[in-house]
Amino acid sequence: MTATPFGPLLERAHDHAFEYLRELPDRHVDASATRDELLAALGAPLAAGGEAGEAVIDLLATQAVRGTAACSSPRYFGFVIGGAYPVALAADWLVSTWDQNAGIYVISPLVAVVEEVAAGWLLDLFDLPRESGVGFVTGCQMANFTCLAAARHGMLRRAGWDVEADGLYGAPRVNIVASAEAHITIDVALRYLGFGTRAIQRVEADEQGRMRADRLAGLMASLEGPTIICAQAGNVNTGAVDPLREIGAIAQRHQAWLHVDGAFGLWARASHRHAALADGIELADSWATDAHKWLNVPYDSGVAIVRHAQDHRAAMTSTAAYLIQTQGTERDAVDWVPEFSRRARGVPVYATLRALGRDGVGDLVDRCCARANQVAEILSGESGVRILNDVVLNQVLVRFADDEDTTRRVIAGVQQDGTCWLGGTTWHGRAAMRISVSNWATSEEDVARSADAIMKVFRALQRG
């Protein structure tokens, strides 16, 4: 048998990876090294002759122990970041091994078919129109961009304008409507698409961050011309979901395009227990979500879904004389996403959906929500601790001693302690701790340990 240069390096990487995963459940959750320390270890003039591959792998692995936050830890509660489900990680290793450019069918029939099947499974899981277009993108930023590009195309096409050929200069004005609590990725997508953020007409939100349907109805009555409405399933602070059935009815009445940013909240549709929170979401014209959040696949993995597949494809597709693009039923991913060359990011989605099944995905969502309620219940029993939101999904907002400085000091103290990691935010002008439970591996014990660490930091501050 011919010797392969991959064997020793892959075995070495495998051993390092297993050691990293073995230590993950019990390690200090935050990174421990500073920028200067990492630069001292990793920085050097680029050598003319290079270095041994084994030495490079060893260097990266040893510095990762102190230079990475343990984002896959069951006690990492920052930024709505999921872990890596075992089958998803294993599938992602295969994706790197195959090294397929997943842009067109002719390069990788396997990946094209896997993503076609995974797309159908997602539409079924979310109970969205089965004829919808689906694109696997880097994350919800590009999912929002892709969906809103389709919305731009669709609304201007109805007005008799070809935006792909003629651009926005001289085009009919498109009204852009979004909640005052819209995620920043909506603003960024609108910037990328040439609308600009000053064009956004903001709709007031309620105390939980839900768009007020009555205010939306009033605004829509004053608008004329093509309109895109951006709603939300899962407020990034509270987890609250906009009243989507009411919003959907308003959008239909005014023939507006309704887009829903469901970065994590769309996954509530997979849960019998929580699906009612997203009631009416099926009335929308497009949906954006992340698989690297609640499906717990490795980064990067977002999903763009558009009811009107012809608008989706027209907004994204690209052609060239040298390409061999399908004219049949085969799927070319380049028709549905902004990227041309791309990795086969739909494969871990396929693997995880197949391994978990419909019930497994629903259970994953339910367990995370239960753990969020658990931490809220424990912390709310402590004198001087207040939960600021209704815990409807996996987000918890906490304030300490009803004081800005104390709250921020508790957050910093918990991060330094390392038992768990969580971040801060500002909610209705007040500092708050933000806890997001998004990891498949988070147990009741993990939550209890984390809550105990939080209370210890707070009590120490109270004692002065």
Characteristic key phrases:
Aspartate Aminotransferase, domain 2; alpha/beta; PyrdxlP-dep_Trfase_small; Aspartate Aminotransferase, domain 1; PyrdxlP-dep_de-COase; 464 residues; 7-stranded mixed β-sheet; 4-stranded antiparallel β-sheet; 3 domains
What does the secondary structure layout of this molecule look like, with pairings?
Elements: H1 6-23, H2 35-42, H3 53-67, H4 86-98, H5 109-126, E1 133-137, H6 140-158, H7 163-166, E2 175-179, H8 184-192, E3 200-203, H9 213-220, E4 227-232, H10 244-253, E5 257-261, E6 286-290, E7 302-306, H11 309-316, H12 346-380, E8 385-387, E9 395-400, H13 404-417, E10 423-427, E11 430-436, H14 444-463
Parallel strand pairs: 2-3, 2-4, 4-5, 5-6
Antiparallel strand pairs: 1-7, 6-7, 8-9, 9-11, 10-11
Helix pairs in contact: 1-3, 4-12, 5-12, 6-8, 6-11, 9-10, 12-14, 13-14
Provide an overview of this structure.
- InterPro entries: Aromatic_deC, PyrdxlP-dep_de-COase, PyrdxlP-dep_Trfase, PyrdxlP-dep_Trfase_major, PyrdxlP-dep_Trfase_small.
- Belongs to the group II decarboxylase family.
- Pfam families: Pyridoxal_deC.
- This protein is of the alpha/beta class.
- It is built from 14 helices and eleven strands.
- The chain has a seven-stranded mixed β-sheet, with helices on both faces. A four-stranded antiparallel β-sheet has the order 8-9-11-10.
